[in-house]
Amino acid sequence: MLLRQIVLYPIKSLDGVVVQEARMTAGGILEFDRIYAILDGEGKVVNGKRTPRVHMLRTQFDPTFREVCLWQTGDSTRHHFSIEEPSALNKWLSDYFEFPVALACETRSGFPDDRTAYGPTITSEASLDAVTQWFPEMTMQSARRRFRSNLEIGDVPPFWEDHLFGAAGELKPFQIGQVHFLGHNPCQRCVVPTRDPDRSDPIPNFQKSFMELRRKNLPDWSNAERFNHYYRFAINTSVAPSEAGKCLRVGDPIMVN
Q1: Suppose 234 and one of 7, 164, 177, 187 were both cysteines; which one would form an S-S bond, judging by CB atoms 3.0 to 4.6 Å apart?
Q2: For the segment 159-170, what is each residue's pLDDT rounded down to a tens digit?
Q3: Which stretches does DSSP call E strand in the chain?
Q4: Are 29 and 112 contacting, i.e. CB atoms less than 8 angstroms apart?
Q5: Nearest in space to 23 (alpha carbons), one of 65, 82, 60
């Protein structure tokens, strides 16, 4: 069992960046992961759950994550911005969404969806491959971009990551390389995985089909009591402040206590 891939999502809800290693922050997140968020005038996050226009945005970052290039799917024109001085970026995004927005920054703890299980999300290569077998119109890369997990485990059977949570109220300890994690629960999904990550077109009846297939393919090692419904995929975690500064690296072994 080893860590096959690490993906950071510097701007919440936008494209990810594959890296070979990532450092933990004192806030329990991967450094640079979801440290920026697009907020409206009321301070609410603009994400794929709110508007499918998010799926049409493409991004590339410089190696320091201080500059970003944005464009719309299918558009050949690239727009380059400083993230540290985001006034021009805010204007471009406001014009794109057709309402005022601004980029917010939180480098220590980021902008996680779950304020309790705020750590990196984990899935396996085999689980993603299984989902592509359920939905032939979905490629492996599309599956990764739909479910947006930070860490991908290799050399395991489908849904092996269900080993990483326990009974209700239990936090399951495990380790990847140097970093100690606590596994919380299988992640409840939203509307985002139903949509094409480039064009926002939905797969018809995706959620219903996924739930039925997840139930039918639930491994013996999964705790079925943790599934009040089966629209769950990947594992939510938390990481203690004591792990700050430790690095995860592709190829790190996974050890379950």
Answers
A1: 187
A2: 999 999 999 999
A3: 2-8, 17-19, 21-23, 36-40, 57-61, 67-72, 79-82, 101-105, 122-124, 151-154, 172-176, 179-188, 232-238, 247-249, 254-256
A4: yes
A5: 65
Q: Residue 127 corresponds to which amino acid?
A: S
Bridge-based pairing state of the strands 2-8 and 151-154: antiparallel
Q: 257 pLDDT exceeds 90? A: no
**Which run of H or E residues covers position 144?**
helix 140-147
The pair of three-digit structure tokens given for residue 52, joined into one six-digit string:
């499918």
DSSP 226: G
Percent of the chain with pLDDT over 70: 100
As a whole number of angstroms, the distance between CA 187 and CA 159 comes to 12
pLDDT tens by residue, 189-241: 999 999 999 988 999 999 999 999 999 999 999 999 999 999 999 999 999 99
The rounded Cα 51 to chain-centroid distance in angstroms is 17
* Cβ count within 10 A of residue 118: 20
Q: Say yes or no to pLDDT of 41 above 90.
A: yes
Average the pLDDT over 152-158 and give the result.
Answer: 97
Q: Are 93 and 45 in contact (CB under 8 A)?
A: no
Rg (CA), the chain: 18
DSSP reduced 3-state for 224: helix
